[in-house]
User: Fold this.
Amino acid sequence: MSREKLQKLGIELPLFPTTSVGSFPKPDYLVTARSEFAKRKISRDQLRQSERRATEFWIRKQEELGVDVLVDGEMYRGDMVAYFAEHMPGFEEGGLVRSYGNRYYHKPIIISEVQWPGPITVEWWEYAQGLTRKPVKGMLTGAYTVMDWSFNEAYADRRAACLALAGEIRKEVEALIQAGAKIIQIDEPAVSVRPEELPLAIEAMRVTTDGLPAYFITHICYGAFEYIYPGMLEFPVDNFDLEMSNSGLDMLALFRQHPYSKDISFGAVDVHNHAIEAEPVVEERLRKALEVLPKESLWVDPDCGLKTRSVEEAAQKMKVLVDAARALRN
Assistant:
């Protein structure tokens, strides 16, 4: 069904289409530029030039590797929630909190009614899509995760904040579709943290996507999926992008107990490991997936964003994914 939806949108993909979750590591010149901008040593226009250069680098690299559905690499973002909070009225920047490892972000504070200010990511999507004939995913963070990773000082409760955000984020989705985006990924990594709020996350996603003409993907990672599966299948999306390899493919056991019913972007390499898996290892992971999933539903990608790896490691991990997918096609 989902392949038919893609075809109706004018997108033809091979079996086992390859893609990435979203983020790639920032080249050294962009890391330097971001530091210099923070110290007011360069202008925003100079920073933007470096961001565009890095975006083009990753589009060209993905094309070179043979990836089927591309991402812009998120060269213009720091944190996936703080970025949107910085652009939406109703937020102010909070103090630093630890995300994971030695990475920190400024946790946003909702201080008043949140508002969509106009297109936030559209110009970046248009720039990336203009560099390639392959489809480029629109990339957003979902309302539930933005709410959960922010302090709420404006709304009556978590549900009110979440649904307000969902309505505003929908406007960004509509703007991406109007610009020409046909595949849109809405990341919701926080969904598996509070199983009791799964219905709220589903309701918010419905507010964001209902009735819109696009193929929707949502990324959920590193959680206790046994507490939200199979309930998460109610999400109004076409494809779940899931971490699989870091947890030893343990979700396949859940799929055997209750049939999985959507497309899946199957995390076939571990992004939190510096080791580059051999192609036969990745291919074997995918063959195990095919024991319980129909081949038409299987997409191939990393477990999560590759921004924590070096540029070289990220490219190598993407190459092994592409090689494994091609081996399966043959």
The mean pLDDT is 94.
